[in-house]
Amino acid sequence: MSSACLSMESRASMAPAPRALPYYVAFSQLLGLTVVATTGAWLGLYRGGIAWESALQFNVHPLCMVIGLVFLQGDALLVYRVFRNEAKRTTKVLHGLLHVFAFIIALVGLVAVFDYHRKNGYADLYSLHSWCGILVFVLYFVQWLVGFSFFLFPGASFSLRSRYRPQHIFFGATIFLLSLGTALLGLKEALLFKLGTKYSTFEPEGVLANVLGLLLASFGVAVLYILTRGDWKRPPQAEEQALSMDFKTLTEGDSPSSQ
Q: Which residues cross the membrane (predicted)?
């Protein structure tokens, strides 16, 4: 019976991806790259570009946050949908590394805005955008740290990982949604600071930024749709099934749920 189950899992693990999944993933990547390109175009056309040692230092902030906490974070969430037949540990490492890159890039963006405020004598952390941004950044770091401790560090038991996994998945999606909302708040704030009442007159910068906002929302919807399709989840690998059987008494018979 056990051999038959392992054989079935082995064949399932090599099953081809659902027919529509590659198209949705490709579409999400097209949206994500368009978001990054549009952010760069907005900063280049209407904000003077990017430089660290000048008044343009502030522009490092939105670009880094979009690349790190939107695009790369979204891609990190999709790793378990894209790499369906690779070894689980390899997929975990890639998932964790993408989050590391996203965190480092976001950290650069955070340093840029605080340094810019310090040099120009501006107040910090007074707006809703800044409060949400700090919350997202702290949650993102804690989520990565706890995830590393449970899923990559060898000390955590299999049963503990299984119990924590649903929370990890939930908070990952929640932080991604909060990142998108914070980006939209920041975009609106930047437009109101510069355009003021001109924003209501369909200024070209305002129109382009509105398009960027719609692209941000669309990328988020695409990523979350892929994540929430139950039939697109990564199939359990034979090694996971064997591990589940070995630790059956610890997990009360539950097999490792796929991400």
A: 21-45, 65-83, 95-114, 134-156, 168-187, 207-227
- Of 55, 94, 50, 90, the residue nearest 72 (C-alpha): 94
- Spatial neighbors of 20 by CB under 8 A, at least 6 apart, are none
More confident residue, 240 or 37: 37
What is the structure's pLDDT at 6? 44
> 78-94: b or e for each residue (b if 16 or more CB lie within 10 Å)?
bbbbbebeeebeebbeb
Contact 208, 41 (CB under 8 A): yes
Within 10 angstroms of residue 118's Cβ, the number of other Cβ atoms is 10
pLDDT of residue 161: 87
Which of 192, 207, 38 lies closest to 127 in space, CA to CA? 192
What gap in Å lies between CA 186 and CA 146, rounded to an integer? 28
- Determine the Cα–Cα distance for residues 55 and 51; give it in Å rounded to an integer: 8
Count other C-beta atoms under 10 Å from residue 6's C-beta: 15
Query: pTM higher than 0.70, yes or no?
Result: yes
How far apart, in whole angstroms, are the C-alpha atoms of residue 100 and residue 97? Answer: 5
| pLDDT digit string, tens, across residues 59-80 | 999 999 999 999 999 999 999 9
pLDDT exceeds cutoff 50 at 1: no
pLDDT digits (tens, 9 = 90+) for 113-162: 999 999 999 999 999 999 999 999 999 999 999 999 998 887 778 888 88
Cβ-contact 226, 25 below 8 angstroms: yes
Rounded Cα gap, residues 32 and 34, in angstroms: 5
The crossing angle, in degrees rounded to 10, of helices 204-228 and 158-195 is 170
Q: Name the token pair of 13.
A: 């693990």
